[in-house]
């Protein structure tokens, strides 16, 4: 028993010593990036899938739980693969050129995005659209910081909010098929289901009647 404990402690010390070696840092960062991508993807997707599934999807409890598990696994896997690919390519480019330059990040991420997120499915589509909105805000701020466009005298956010909401409701009302399914479900609940009721039960208590009255 004592021998097994000693062997485990020796193995733990060797692993910790390996983690401290700078020459292995790039490779170890790739492995930890894979781990962090998997964990973060699961943390983000699981609660979102749980809420959206129970709010908007029909089916048995088993089918709903299966859908949640599949969505969580897909998000976690894709994010882990992407971080692994991105950091691996970043390290390879830095090693080949002897230094890290900004274009390395762009090229590595482009390849990782094409390889991992190139399949047009609901999970990837949602992630890409989430990033797109952040990119537009980020590029706008960068353009102001660099002096490419003048700094606005007033906060432009109210105008942005008005245009975003005006456009998305116009699309929902007249070109619904162009919107992502989860957004269609949310907006149907908010703007279409609120037009229909039969009595007090489905006016205040429930969204839709569950009986055949």
Can you characterise this structure?
With 213 residues, the protein is an all-alpha fold. The protein has three domains: 15-116, no CATH class; 119-151; 155-197, no CATH class. It contains eight helices and no strands. The chain has helices at 2-19, 25-56, 61-97, 102-117, 122-145, 157-174, 181-192, 201-205. Helix 3 (61-97) runs antiparallel to helix 4. The radius of gyration is 24 Å and the shape is flat. The N and C termini lie far apart (70 Å). The model has no long low-confidence stretch (mean pLDDT 88). This is PXMP4 protein. It comes from Oriolus oriolus. It holds the Pfam family Tim17. InterPro entries: Pmp4 (IPR019531).
Secondary structure elements and pairings:
Blueprint: H1 2-19, H2 25-56, H3 61-97, H4 102-117, H5 122-145, H6 157-174, H7 181-192, H8 201-205
Helix pairs in contact: 2-3, 3-4
State the separation between the terminal residues, measured CA to CA: 70 Å
Structural class: mainly alpha
Tell me about the largest β-sheet: none
Radius of gyration: 24 Å
Outline type: flat
Outline the low-pLDDT stretches.
none
Instruction: Find the count of extended strands (DSSP E, 2+ residues).
Output: 0
Tally of domains: 3
Mean pLDDT: 88
Q: What percent of residues are in strands?
A: under 5%
The H-and-E topology, N to C, reads as HHHHHHHH
Helix content: over 70%
Count the helices. How many? 8
Pfam families: Tim17 (PF02466)
Organism: Oriolus oriolus
Protein name: PXMP4 protein
InterPro entries: Pmp4 (IPR019531)
